[in-house]
Amino acid sequence: MLSLAVVGALVALAPLSAAQVKPSGPVWMPPPATEGLVAAAAGSSGPNKQWTNALGNSLYFYDAQRSGNLSLGTYGNRVSWRNTTLLGDGSDWGLDLSGGFHDAGDYIKCTYPFGFTMFALSWGALSFGPGFDLSNQTAYMDGTLRWGFDWLIKAHPSNDTLFVQVGNTTLDNDYWGGDLNIPLPRPAFPVNRTHPGTDVWTSTAAAFAMGAMAYDGGLWNTSAAALAPTSLQDANYSATLLNHAKTLYDVANTTTKATFSDSVPEIGDAYVSTGWNDTLAVAALSLAAATNDSAYYADAYNTYVKYNMTAYRGAWCWEGRTPALYVLFAEIATARPNLAAGAGLANNLTGWQTEAEAYFDYIVAGNNGGTTPAGLVYYSPYSDNNTLQPVIALIHLMLRYAPLASSANKTATYRAFADTQIDYILGKNPMNRPYMVGLHPNSPKNPQTAPASGGDNVLDVRNDPPTEPYIIYGAIPGGPLKSDEFWDYRDDWVQSEPALDYSSSFPAIAAYKIATGASDPYYVKLAADTAVIPSDQPCDNALPCDAPKKKKLSGGAIAGIVVGSVVGVALIGALAWLVARRRRSSNPAATK
Ligand SMILES: *[C@@H]1O[C@H](CO)[C@@H](O)[C@H](O)[C@H]1NC(C)=O
Ligand SMILES: *[C@@H]1O[C@H](CO)[C@@H](O)[C@H](O)[C@H]1NC(C)=O
Ligand SMILES: *[C@@H]1O[C@H](CO)[C@@H](O)[C@H](O)[C@H]1NC(C)=O
Ligand SMILES: *[C@@H]1O[C@H](CO)[C@@H](O)[C@H](O)[C@H]1NC(C)=O
Ligand SMILES: *[C@@H]1O[C@H](CO)[C@@H](O)[C@H](O)[C@H]1NC(C)=O
Ligand SMILES: *[C@@H]1O[C@H](CO)[C@@H](O)[C@H](O)[C@H]1NC(C)=O
Ligand SMILES: *[C@@H]1O[C@H](CO)[C@@H](O)[C@H](O)[C@H]1NC(C)=O
Ligand SMILES: *[C@@H]1O[C@H](CO)[C@@H](O)[C@H](O)[C@H]1NC(C)=O
Ligand SMILES: *[C@@H]1O[C@H](CO)[C@@H](O)[C@H](O)[C@H]1NC(C)=O
Ligand SMILES: *[C@@H]1O[C@H](CO)[C@@H](O)[C@H](O)[C@H]1NC(C)=O
Ligand SMILES: *[C@@H]1O[C@H](CO)[C@@H](O)[C@H](O)[C@H]1NC(C)=O
Ligand SMILES: *[C@@H]1O[C@H](CO)[C@@H](O)[C@H](O)[C@H]1NC(C)=O
């Protein structure tokens, strides 16, 4: 096992790169799933190969989600089956809004949840850096962060204008097919001073501020970070990101408060936001850390008090950012005690430990809605539409908070609890499945992602084609249901659709495991092709229990439209089930 001191020494010796990190050897590609059967040789040196694969795959997933000109970027396109596409995004505003990432199994680009994703990725790079460096994955983290931040910079063309979505939600939901025929037009929707989006401005500002620290570890006092930053070092890029963060925050702080969903209702209901107090506080606190300016700290604290943000018990997710606030306050109380003092406030480390530990202890005790029978944390009702995302996010928070806990017992408790969840996600579950595509022969094989599926038949998404031609390595699907059951049905978005936010804390977790010299992840213990197929039928918001299974239109429906064209049939099929795809209406997890 590598001690943390050894890890620190290795990182200190690693050369600092001035700008983009080029891969040091051949471009890393995911190995075949059968590699997941091979236990790392006992006593072998170097970073754990399985955790390296899990980390590498999790970053490769973001490559598969890229939009725009895929020849661009530091190391080109690693995903041979993806094509350059949607170069006209933004043309309705005379702007170039190509690039960025497709949100989930579809092709829209959604800035609000994307801010959550970029924040979590950047926070992981900032604090679990040795894991990325030791496994040579820093270049791919850099590639992912730049691909995302470069697009956010384009989406923020003037102080108050921030594009919050590209693509028409309805057209996007109804399309099932590859990346060469994505339906047009692709309208772009901004917020601005007359149509404010306090939530999306500050969500994006928080991501930019965290990114600024990830690209300049010197901005952050590492004594509070779980480990240390990656070797990423690009002061110019960091300064650019910080400027965007400051401007967005300033606009949000001086404009009438409103959610982007209320200000731009024509976007529809892909992501309906219900508030902005949490993003406002997280942005202020991230800016305080990145600038060392107590004015931002005062804002964060005042927002926390004014909106009574104590005792939040929901998930850390795109629509509920408060759990991250507790942990970040504790980190700052440790690393930057001057910030509170400069704002005329007590540096209340004990208070922030109490707040964070009350949150974690509530979940460890099962009070949040309990667990599945086999022990996966279940946030009720948020987890109904995606079990894995909130747990992966929770593990990230617990692992980074553990060293700051008020007692050695709590440090050990949080780490042990996080391990139970990691084990479940990586195969210690009644389905015998590691819930990451391409990692092991038992991994899910039918994620609901239009580009990887190779399908374009909305009438039979589940079985046409029977086997997906492309493997979207690293994708983490919605996950099993509360019964622990998982069907691997491509037409079930609840269980099978991957998304940018679902995966966003996984790199931090895998990097932590690498940096701390962990032994193999659970899945190497699973024999090939032992995944369990449930004998009953799914019963969730995608495939309701009381409805006929929608893999095909009923005979009556087909008869009724038999005179219609093939296009007509396709549209009816789309209405029959695609209309319900990953619609995230207001999230009850965000309410106390
Ligand atoms: C994509 O970018 C590459 C590299 O800059 C360029 O050569 C190519 O023409 C671009 N492709 C398109 C379709 O614009
Ligand atoms: C990382 O890259 C360096 C330089 O190419 C190489 O010597 C080393 O073996 C690599 N480490 C891993 C874990 O791949
Ligand atoms: C990319 O284009 C090729 C044809 O050049 C096509 O076979 C492939 O399916 C396309 N990929 C996607 C995701 O549509
Ligand atoms: C401000 O945003 C609204 C809502 O998206 C949009 O309709 C309007 O055109 C924007 N105004 C400007 C000046 O861009
Ligand atoms: C844009 O924001 C920056 C920083 O907040 C400020 O200095 C500048 O004056 C603003 N520009 C305009 C046109 O409002
Ligand atoms: C999105 O597309 C639908 C279907 O074509 C159309 O009815 C709707 O007006 C479009 N919405 C916007 C905001 O463009
Ligand atoms: C605070 O934000 C959350 C999450 O966005 C929201 O659900 C809640 O209604 C907001 N509370 C207030 C008082 O604005
Ligand atoms: C945000 O606005 C409040 C109220 O106007 C002000 O007191 C505070 O100083 C502003 N924050 C920053 C960082 O400028
Ligand atoms: C603040 O929230 C806590 C926990 O939900 C609650 O007990 C308390 O009554 C609230 N305080 C106010 C002033 O609303
Ligand atoms: C510190 O935090 C605790 C718990 O939130 C709170 O009760 C206490 O009043 C705070 N103390 C100061 C000096 O702010
Ligand atoms: C789950 O998705 C359904 C269908 O889109 C939606 O009506 C419901 O509100 C969502 N549930 C939660 C808890 O977000
Ligand atoms: C923490 O303390 C409790 C109560 O004393 C004990 O039961 C538990 O085993 C301890 N946990 C760890 C991880 O040391």
TrEMBL record:
<keyword id="KW-0136">Cellulose degradation</keyword>
<keyword id="KW-0812">Transmembrane</keyword>
<keyword id="KW-0119">Carbohydrate metabolism</keyword>
<dbReference type="GO" id="GO:0030245">
    <property type="term" value="P:cellulose catabolic process"/>
</dbReference>
<feature type="signal peptide">
    <location>
        <begin position="1"/>
        <end position="19"/>
    </location>
</feature>
<feature type="domain" description="Glycoside hydrolase family 9">
    <location>
        <begin position="52"/>
        <end position="507"/>
    </location>
</feature>
<comment type="similarity">
    <text>Belongs to the glycosyl hydrolase 9 (cellulase E) family.</text>
</comment>
<dbReference type="InterPro" id="IPR008928">
    <property type="entry name" value="6-hairpin_glycosidase_sf"/>
</dbReference>
<feature type="transmembrane region" description="Helical">
    <location>
        <begin position="557"/>
        <end position="580"/>
    </location>
</feature>
<keyword id="KW-0378">Hydrolase</keyword>
<keyword id="KW-0326">Glycosidase</keyword>
<dbReference type="Pfam" id="PF00759">
    <property type="entry name" value="Glyco_hydro_9"/>
</dbReference>
<dbReference type="GO" id="GO:0008810">
    <property type="term" value="F:cellulase activity"/>
</dbReference>
<keyword id="KW-0472">Membrane</keyword>
<keyword id="KW-0624">Polysaccharide degradation</keyword>
<keyword id="KW-1133">Transmembrane helix</keyword>
<protein>
    <recommendedName>
        <fullName>cellulase</fullName>
        <ecNumber>3.2.1.4</ecNumber>
    </recommendedName>
</protein>
<dbReference type="InterPro" id="IPR001701">
    <property type="entry name" value="Glyco_hydro_9"/>
</dbReference>
<keyword id="KW-0732">Signal</keyword>
<dbReference type="InterPro" id="IPR012341">
    <property type="entry name" value="6hp_glycosidase-like_sf"/>
</dbReference>
